[in-house]
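Q: what sequence does this backbone want?
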């Protein structure tokens, strides 16, 4: 399917009730009742705080694909794109071939407590993506139970990543990233890893037409406590998705469309091909993620008798049911090896805060003052 066709589908079927970064059970529950008879949905377990965990099944094909999102509660972009995808399946015939060839099992929010609190961890302060072996948490047990009963042929592990990542050591943001997780200490390129790599290569080919040089892959260092590594070790091709930052897109609405595009391109490929890993080599052409970005860098600031750069990173906080951004100074030093999503030239002037004092590390406010000019720091 061409990129233009996918974009048209997205604009037509985007779930407009889901927006911005804060997505919880309360946001998706009204949508579940409207999915209709072609989607079977059920409560598959409960979280630490007894919030329901939902599972959705759609399609009638032999190729089984398990997809789970918001394992980390504050990573919601992939969840928004899942409902865009479901809308498309239910309201358009363009993707009927996927549903004829595949059966999808979707867990839209695995960590509802973390989603509600807007935290990475669950209510017991456990990172569910480090609990694959211990299975100490109810949410981990739910995912494992569905994995065992559904018996997927492919797994999609859906996440979001911070604005700090670049696609290689460049000034290109890693807007979407992937990983075919390792399954042993030697990071052996096994047959099922090759299958995952081939699928990632297809998505990358599509995304390069939209965001050239803005796709990355993660280091595949092995950690059996991670869910992807565990499922990969058990012989199931597993793809890690990471929804990252696009210029100015702090709502993650542009990235949402790119994730949707990745879903459709990969699922169409799986539906129409016998994916056995023969075409995995393009995976190794994707640059590895580096941490080369700050949200803002103030360049050439006068600090004492020297010129230095000031790195500012947004802190995301839940305020009255909405995610707000709070700029915080992380470093004051030479940052020649780093890039800012926004850069401000202080031109050798000192940088002051709201109290007319020189700013320092950990200073947190929505503006700074340079040469008597008040400069806003919040994203537009």
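A:
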């Amino acid at each position: 399917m061409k990129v233009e066709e996918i974009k048209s589908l997205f604009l037509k079927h985007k779930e407009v009730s889901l927006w911005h970064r804060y997505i919880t059970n309360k946001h998706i529950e009204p949508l579940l009742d409207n999915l209709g008879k072609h989607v079977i949905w059920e409560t598959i377990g409960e979280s630490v705080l007894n919030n329901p965990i939902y599972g959705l099944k759609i399609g009638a094909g032999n190729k089984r694909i398990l997809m789970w999102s918001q394992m980390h509660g504050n990573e919601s972009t992939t969840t928004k794109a899942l409902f865009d995808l479901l809308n498309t399946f239910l309201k358009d015939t363009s993707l009927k071939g996927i549903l004829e060839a595949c059966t999808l099992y979707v867990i839209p929010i695995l960590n509802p407590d973390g989603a509600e609190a807007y935290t990475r961890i669950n209510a017991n302060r456990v990172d569910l993506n480090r609990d694959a072996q211990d299975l100490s948490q109810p949410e981990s047990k739910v995912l494992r139970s569905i994995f065992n009963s559904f018996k997927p042929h492919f797994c999609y592990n859906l996440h979001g990543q911070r604005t700090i990542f670049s696609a290689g050591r460049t000034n290109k943001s890693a807007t979407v990233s992937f990983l075919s997780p390792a399954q042993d200490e030697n990071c052996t390129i096994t047959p099922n890893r090759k299958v995952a790599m081939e699928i990632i290569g297809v998505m990358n080919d599509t995304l390069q037409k939209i965001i050239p040089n803005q796709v990355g892959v993660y280091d595949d260092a092995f950690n059996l406590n991670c869910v992807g590594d565990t499922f990969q070790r058990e012989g199931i091709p597993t793809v890690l998705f990471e929804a990252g930052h696009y210029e100015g897109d702090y709502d993650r609405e542009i990235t949402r469309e790119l994730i949707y595009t990745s879903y459709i391109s990969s699922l169409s490929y799986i539906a129409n091909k016998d994916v056995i890993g023969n075409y995995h080599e393009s995976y190794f052409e994707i640059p590895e993620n580096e941490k080369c970005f700050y949200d803002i860098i103030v360049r050439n600031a006068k600090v004492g008798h020297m010129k230095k750069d000031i790195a500012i990173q947004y802190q995301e906080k839940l305020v009255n049911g909405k995610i707000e951004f709070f700029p915080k100074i992380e470093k004051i030093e030479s940052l020649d090896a780093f890039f800012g999503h926004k850069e401000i030239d202080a031109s050798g002037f000192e940088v002051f805060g709201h109290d007319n004092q020189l700013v320092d590390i950990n200073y947190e406010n929505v503006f700074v003052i340079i040469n008597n000019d008040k400069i806003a720091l919040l994203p537009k």
